[in-house]
Amino acid sequence: IHALSVGEVVSAVPLVKALQEAFPSRGVVFTVSTATGMRIAREALQGRVQVLHTMPFDGWWAVRRFIRRIRPEVFILVETDIWPGFLNYLHGLGVPSILVNGRISPRTHRAYKRASWLVRRMFKPLKMCLMQSELDRRRLLEVGLAPQKVLTTGNIKFDRNVPLLDDKERHHWLRLLNLTASDPVWVAGSTHRGEENMVLQAFERLRLAYPSLRLILAPRDISRTMELKSTIRSMKMQVAVRSKFPENRGEYDVLLLDTYGELDRIYGLGWVSFVGGSLVPVGGHNLLEPAHLGSPVVFGPYTQNFVFMAAAIVEAGGGIQVADADTLYAAVKDLLDRPGQRAEMGDKGMAFVAQNRGAVKHVVSWVRKHITAGEVA
């Protein structure tokens, strides 16, 4: 199973678990392409898979050596990161390759249409392409892939088993982050350059009505922590950095979350959550992380990486899409002002996640079709 980076690794965790339950006699080799992806993979999968490895360079000598060593029965590619040499070598050996949780962004779609002959050749070694949405499926069909090879099976991100924070865990996080149960908390996760200023401007205005409001800000790139710390201080706000706890734990207005693996649970503290990459033209990040934990989700207009998810969570009543800093301020204030609506949105977000589960079962079914009595089908 190959996952490019953090988002794909997180998506793949429930799939790994389901495949191990379905095929207990098979080992799993899990590869990633980035250092941060490997860090998350070790935290989530160490001890669950037989091998964790960096994806080898896509040259025939490296690919041949790696594949001969692991001798895979099936290769599963999660979401993206096509490796033509790797796929072609597997195809030559008769090993089926399956793309799962496939998505095609508008930008990728435009590029694919300009070189459709190359895209068809690139996708030819793949046995099946299991896509997140019907829109993603149509985009591949438009560049000439055979309809029987491209199916819509849903998004495996919905299948993550994310337990709600119980009282013990909630108390743990509140104590650890120097918060009280009565402190209103706004969590802004996976933010990008140009976006934090809009979040901070909205937060500054919100504090006029809610002086005890705390902002937990988690930049997508934690190397920007010191830059953001300077920006916050220039706005005359107290700032703390998570990695400096507990020795420097004190009062703060804004907490910069510069750690890996904690945002996923800290969203559960959010009276309101904002998911970044959406107020700037990045394409958005996973809206399900706060929704899993019952936190109302606010996000911006740039959601091309999650088109179906963004539209569907708004329609389900679990999220609000905003246009800019002003509408972000208005949406968050409205939710802080109306605890009943806030609770209702959180419940609807969790219901939305539950109703869309099931993609992993489809993937396991397709893998089963390509494994027969321990031999490659």
Q: Percent range for helical residues?
A: 40-55%
Distance between the termini: 18 Å
- Give a quick account of the main beta sheet: strands, pairing sense, barrel closure: 7 strands, parallel
Strand arrangement within the widest β-sheet reads 3-2-1-4-5-6-7
Report low-confidence residues grouped into runs of 5 or more: 373-377
Class by helix and strand content? alpha/beta
Mean of residue pLDDT values: 93
Total helical segments: 16
SSE layout and pairings?
Layout: E1 2-3, H1 6-22, E2 29-32, H2 35-45, E3 51-54, H3 60-70, E4 75-78, H4 84-93, E5 97-102, H5 106-114, H6 116-123, E6 126-131, H7 134-142, E7 150-152, H8 167-176, E8 185-191, H9 196-209, E9 214-219, H10 225-234, E10 239-241, E11 254-256, H11 263-266, E12 272-275, H12 288-292, E13 297-299, H13 307-316, E14 319-321, H14 325-337, H15 339-355, H16 359-369, E15 371-372, E16 375-376
Parallel strand pairs: 1-2, 1-4, 2-3, 4-5, 5-6, 6-7, 8-9, 8-12, 9-11, 10-11, 12-13, 13-14
Antiparallel strand pairs: 15-16
Helix pairs in contact: 1-2, 1-16, 3-4, 9-14
Task: Explain this structure.
This protein is an alpha/beta fold and 377 residues long. It is 45% helix and 16% strand. The chain has 16 helices and 16 strands. A 7-stranded parallel beta sheet has the order 3-2-1-4-5-6-7, sandwiched between helices. Strands 10-11-9-8-12-13-14 form a 7-stranded parallel beta sheet. Strands 15-16 form a two-stranded antiparallel sheet. Helix 4 links the parallel strand 4 and strand 5 (97-102). The longest helix has 17 residues, at 6-22. The chain is globular and about 65 Å long.
